[in-house]
Amino acid sequence: MKIRLKPIKLKAFFATGLCLSLLWACSVVSPSINSFAEAEQYLKETLLPKISISTELVSDTDAYNAVIPPLVEIVPDPETYPLAGATPTNDSNIVYVEVYSSAEKANAARKDERWLVDVAEAFNKQQQQLPSGEIIQVGIRNIPSGIGEQIIAAGKGQPAGYTPAHALWTELLKANSVPNETISEGLVTSHAIFALRPQVYAALEQNGEVTFDRLMDAILSGEINKIGYSNPYIASSALNFLYTSLWRSAGHDQDGKPLTLAELNSPEVGSLFNAFQQQVTLTTPTYLDLKQIWLRDDEAFDAIVMAHQSFVGLTQQRGFEQFKYVPFGVPETSPLVVFDWTTSAEEEALQSFVNFATSEDMQRLATEQGYERTDYIQKGDFPPLPSGDVLQAAQSFWKQRKDGGRTVYMEMVVDTSGSMDQGNRLNAVKDALRTASSQINPGNQVGLVSFSDKPTIRVPLAPYNELEQKRFFTAIEQLKAYGGTALYDGLAVGIAELMDKQSLDPEGQFSLLLLTDGERTTGLSLEQLEGVIKESGVRIYPIAYGEVNQSQLEAIAALRETPVYQGTPEKVELLLKDLFQTSL
After folding, report:
1. Rounded to an integer, what distance in angstroms lies between the CA atom of residue 526 and that of residue 136?
2. Which of 44, 72, 207, 388 could serve as a FRET partner for 344 with CA atoms 20 to 30 Å apart?
3. What gap in Å lies between CA 503 and CA 537, rounded to an integer?
């Protein structure tokens, strides 16, 4: 064990009651830990005895008597998403049209993801007019395709137009009783892909052409087993892959027929889906999260599902020049649709915008940002577009079966230090935990640990059912903000319980959600815990919820190959819903 000596301030020195002759305090650094067994031993024998742990459990009686209020589906406010181009106006000489756009072409902050923003800005400068004389101005709202569909379906937003990555989302809207009319089949052309590490691609290539079928066979047989996937309720490429893989499992790659609802219940489709899920290392809300992990460590995944346009940007990064891809699925052509509430003037304005966006100059700009008519697109051999009813059933199929027959264990470690009392932070987290709990699959195990001056065990890991949901709700209600921030003490307690479960169920999936709004002020340090984190088998999802030490959370995330998520009281409900949806 290594010992680090560091000087301490006299005030802190006297407070500890140490001998006055000492001028140094010792801080124990994690020893070299190279296995789960070593991590477990060091955690239990060295670290946990240093921690003052309290327990405030909810009794069975209190849990039985708890009342669960009706849970409202979480649908975000569209106004919380960035708007670029024009903004709403009361000027009667202007026709303002707002378009909800998928994120990969509407992110004004990234030069390789802002094509539609650039188009709107160039279009608005032209001050084009309707025949009636009003000037057309276009605003682009950056909302991920799936979230845009949810907002529109729930009636929380009524944009003049909607341009998701592909038409699967507009079919889902129709299934949700939101008719829409296509005024452009495609603003730009892309498609979904599996991005592969060059070594993986080279191994596949030894057996001939690397096709989607060859890749899928390798994944299903366990040849390739570090797959990154994202949430098909949100991410376009993920929904595209879910549909395409189910369509293929039903044998329709041979006959070209569409997938049916009945086929989702076939044993063969279920068996192949479970085999794929066994090879999934990590599922995140969007593929952009996976891309960021890959940029940090190019060996984190053998393959990830993403969009070809984003892949082009990836290969321009140092170290990724030799990465390869395999295309699949329905083309992601960014259709533009309008609705019953879109006025004739707005529709006419959008048609002018479509003409501009599909002009030679704007399409050349699209090519510069990674949009290409690849061989896959030109070949034209795609799965047929499914109905929205089939897509809805496919999403439910994924949610119910995504764990591949394994039990998921998640510990929620929540900061309840005094700063969480500011700006409605803790109340927002409590509301978010209650609402997001509707995404937990029965049988998965959920625990709750809070921490301030010391950690408190509130809900031990147990199979999730109606009684455990009531216990969880009661424990959430009891959370109060006070004291300091023993961040790593709370983390150690959560990891310890998960490691206990892992010893009993080595095939399970183990994760920990760490939500904090501040920096550690007391207790263990990251240096003392990092060896345990690395070998624990627990995937940690840090959520930065305020003025946190970002570098510390990034260091935690890097140890277990996860992104750091940014939370605010306004968006924490949606964030936790997404994380529960993908992880539980």
Report:
1. 55
2. 388
3. 11
Amino acid at 451: F
CATH (domain of 216): 3.40.190.10
Q: What's the CA dihedral at 290, 293, 298, 300 to 10 degrees?
A: -80
Statement to judge: residues 536 and 436 lie in one domain: yes
Taking every pair of Cα atoms in the chain, the longest distance, rounded to a whole number of angstroms, is 89
Residue 334 near residue 191, CB atoms below 8 Å: no
Which tens digit of pLDDT belongs to each residue from 61-74?
888 888 887 766 77
Say if CB 451 and CB 415 are below 8 A apart.
yes
- How confident is residue 347, by pLDDT bands cut at 50, 70 and 90? very high
Long-range contacts at 357-364 (CB < 8 A, ≥ 24 apart): 357/116, 357/119, 357/123, 357/184, 357/187, 357/188, 358/184, 358/187, 362/119, 362/122, 363/188
- Binned at pLDDT 50, 70 and 90, residue 290 comes out as confident
List own/partner pairs for 296-299 with CB under 8 A and 24 or more apart.
296/558, 296/561, 297/558, 297/561, 298/197, 299/197
Q: Which two tokens stand for residue 467?
A: 């009684």
Q: Which two structure tokens, joined as six digits, stand for 316? A: 């321009």
The distance from CA 197 to its chain's CA centroid, rounded to whole angstroms, is 22
DSSP at 35: S
Cβ neighbours, 10 Å, residue 222: 10
Residue 120: DSSP 8-state: H
> Facing residues of 100 across strands?
141, 162
Do residues 201 and 268 share a domain? yes
For residue 95, give Cα distances in angstroms to 128, 204, 335, 339. 10, 54, 22, 17
153-192 pLDDT, tens digit per residue, is: 999 999 999 999 999 999 999 999 999 999 999 999 999 9
Residue 30 banded pLDDT, cuts 50, 70, 90: low
Same domain, 207 and 221: yes
Is position 497 within any domain?
yes
Claim to verify: residue 4 and residue 57 sit in the same structural domain:
no
- In the chain, the number of structural domains is 4
Q: What distance in Å separates the CA atoms of residue 514 and residue 564, rounded to the nearest whole number?
A: 10
Q: Which two tokens stand for residue 485?
A: 């921030």
CATH of residue 508's domain is 3.40.50.410
525: containing domain? 32-65+406-583
Amino acid symbol at 403: D
Q: Which residues of 367-406 are buried (b: 16+ CB within 10 A; e: fewer)?
A: eebbbbebebbeeeebbeebbbebbebbbebbbeebbeee
Strands (E), 285-407: 303-307, 324-332, 336-339
Domain match, 347 and 277 both: no
**For residue 377, is it within any domain?**
no
For 292-315, b/e burial (b = at least 16 CB within 10 A) is ebbeeeeebbbbbbbbbbbbbbbe
